[in-house]
Amino acid sequence: MARPDDDTWDLANSVGATATLVAAARAAATRRPQAVISDPFAEPLVRAVGIDLFNRVASGEFDGDDSALGIPRMTDTFAAWARFYDEYFVQVADAGIRQVVIVAAGLDSRSYRLSWPAGTTVYEIDQTKVIEFKTTTLSKIGAKPTTEYRSVGIDLREDWPGALRAAGFDDAQPTAWLAEGVLIGFLSPQAEVQLLDDVIALSARGSRLAADHGSVIGSAADSQERAQKITDALARHGFDLDYGELIYPGEHTDVAAHLRDRGWRVIRYRLHDLLTAAGLPELESADREGPATNIGFVTAILK
Ligand code: SAM
């Protein structure tokens, strides 16, 4: 069944549950002896959502080691993603950028856990229920943002640029954008292009963007079968989520090409680059051809 353009969710269902899943993997990665990331807020956030499967992932009891889930070595994979974008923000800070926008922030806690240069403002956009749940839960455990933080609760298919400006965003300043885990099939191809074009229109010279793109289920004719495999695997592990209903099938926007064609200087990466950069083991040969390799990563600068 196709997704309607105005659907909503919280962190326990639909697209929102995927935010809880990746936060659970970050929680597990944080517990590891030689951790490659530190996200101390992931576990309390996941536990506050309260889904048994994700609690088990967060505690390290279940490592997602089921190839049918489509993500090889889930804890390592999402730790490598998180580390890649943490490093991006170090470069952003070194470049003197003091305005940051994290779109589809989900349970991202970078506004609370990274050390931001003085004068940085971080804006986060996600659906209202998602962003309110995060800020309320973190406030209950006494966590405070480490910089000026402004949350913008709005759907990315609505006039989010207007809401961002109303929150104080200044399009004359260079911005560092992050779109982690959203341009991977959770928006229709048209909504992806609109999102990117809005980002481009709001970006002063010197702005940067980091993002992942593609789709775990790929764009081939068998993508619904692949989605069904993920749905079945989640059900086997005790969580009912129809993955095929979340993902827009078909071709998704090549973010790197879209930006390059509009004058941005772009670098592409693959999952194995991120694992290597994090000092994590390489993918097994079977996984090198697997569904997660449909996802690409990009950093870009508007010179
Ligand atoms: N960036 C976060 C991270 O990596 O931990 C969350 C990634 S999660 C896989 C996908 C996120 O995209 C969810 O938080 C979801 O609410 C958000 N999202 C997807 N479509 C959206 C839309 N139309 N409007 C606002 N947020 C959206």
UniProtKB/TrEMBL annotation:
<keyword id="KW-0808">Transferase</keyword>
<dbReference type="GO" id="GO:0032259">
    <property type="term" value="P:methylation"/>
</dbReference>
<dbReference type="InterPro" id="IPR029063">
    <property type="entry name" value="SAM-dependent_MTases_sf"/>
</dbReference>
<dbReference type="Pfam" id="PF04072">
    <property type="entry name" value="LCM"/>
</dbReference>
<dbReference type="InterPro" id="IPR007213">
    <property type="entry name" value="Ppm1/Ppm2/Tcmp"/>
</dbReference>
<comment type="function">
    <text>Exhibits S-adenosyl-L-methionine-dependent methyltransferase activity.</text>
</comment>
<dbReference type="InterPro" id="IPR011610">
    <property type="entry name" value="SAM_mthyl_Trfase_ML2640-like"/>
</dbReference>
<keyword id="KW-0489">Methyltransferase</keyword>
<protein>
    <recommendedName>
        <fullName>S-adenosyl-L-methionine-dependent methyltransferase</fullName>
        <ecNumber>2.1.1.-</ecNumber>
    </recommendedName>
</protein>
<dbReference type="GO" id="GO:0008168">
    <property type="term" value="F:methyltransferase activity"/>
</dbReference>
<keyword id="KW-0949">S-adenosyl-L-methionine</keyword>
<comment type="similarity">
    <text>Belongs to the UPF0677 family.</text>
</comment>
